[in-house]
Amino acid sequence: MSTSTTESSASIQLIASDLDGTLLTSRNNVSVRTQEAIKAAQREGILVVPATGRGSISAIRALESIPNLPWFITSNGAVIENTEESAKTTIRTISSEISQHAIDQLKSRSNDYTFAWLTSEGFGAEDKFRDLHSQFLSRRHVSMTPGFNPGNDDLIKVLIGGAHRDPKRLLASVIEDLDHLLHVEPVVTIAGSDAAFVEMTAFGVNKGTALELLSSQLGIDSNQIIAFGDQHNDLQMLEWAGHSVAMANAVASVQEQSTLQTKNNDEDGVAIIIEQILDGTLTRSADTRTDP
After folding, report:
1. Which DSSP symbol is given to 243?
2. Is the Cα dihedral 235, 41, 90, 120 positive or negative?
3. Would 9-91+206-279 and 96-202 be classified into the same CATH topology?
4. Rounded CA gap, 138 and 257, in Å?
5. How far is Cα 203 from Cα 18, in angstroms, rounded to an integer?
6. Residue 141: Cβ within 10 Å count
7. CA distance to 170, 222, 223, 286, per residue, from 242 (Å)
8. Which helix (H) or strand (E) covers residue 279, if one does?
9. pTM
10. In the sheet where 188-191 sits, what is the strand order?
11. What top-level class would CATH report for the domain 96-202?
């Protein structure tokens, strides 16, 4: 992309950022440069809101190096958490009837599928899911209660795994096998990321709808928001925000959706854009991947 008109960076009041593949490095931490850029933005009164598919505990632990983060959007937009008041708002859950119907439908299509689930009481999973994804779940600080079954509880989200499937193939398979529940009589939303599973939330629940709800509560307009992302589950957030940034490591659909591009998550891509917001040099459609 080539540089064109100057962004109204002085009007930015909220920075929304995905975590994995975006704000976090491949080593699962926040670089020193990114930490300092976020703290500088906070000193200017800009609100920084992590928006992630992770659960609340995992997200908060991952960002322990950054103080003063009052808001988190977690579980792909199903939950908004105010850490200052220790309060959570669950936007919409999946009824036990719908979640069980979806799980039964997937199982009828393939024995390869395996499942985990999040409720207000915690995480649970089938043994097969836990065995397949134990290392990944450990890196994300996900603690699952052995034998925990949601029973008739409504679910915040369902995690869908599949042995020997890469994320793209798994996402395509789930979308195909749940076609009726996604498109004919839509009752659920499916989101993919770089994880080896996909996530199911209630219909209409995503990072974009959560960010819209939070910004409305805070009195911040979409044109005062810049969002960062790299995966399919960031698309609605990037589309809704007035300014959107794709990481260099982002999937093609995210790069096409975004008004800006930056370096990858191991090269301080988020920090580069924040620094430009603060010094007034951010430009619309500026490709910053070659910045020093």
Report:
1. E
2. positive
3. no
4. 32
5. 21
6. 15
7. 31, 5, 4, 15
8. helix 269-279
9. 0.87
10. 122-125, 113-119, 157-162, 197-202, 188-191
11. alpha beta
List CB contacts of 172: < 8 A, sequence separation 6 or more. Answer: none
Q: Break the chain into its structural domains and give their ranges.
A: 9-91+206-279, 96-202
Q: How many residues does the chain have?
A: 292
CA dihedral 258, 211, 101, 131 (to 10 degrees): 80
Residues whose CB falls within 8 Å of the CB of residue 252, separated by 6 or more in sequence, listed in order: none
> Would you state the structure tokens that stand for residue 29, as one six-digit string?
């931490």
- Measured CA to CA, the distance from residue 132 to residue 249 in angstroms comes to 25
pLDDT tens digits, one per residue of 145-161: 655 566 677 899 999 98
Residues 176-233 pLDDT 10s? 999 888 888 889 999 887 777 889 999 999 999 999 999 999 999 999 999 999 999 9
Sign of CA dihedral 189, 190, 193, 198: positive
Is residue 250 classed as helix, strand or coil in its secondary structure? coil
Q: Which CATH superfamily is domain 9-91+206-279 in?
A: HAD superfamily/HAD-like (3.40.50.1000)
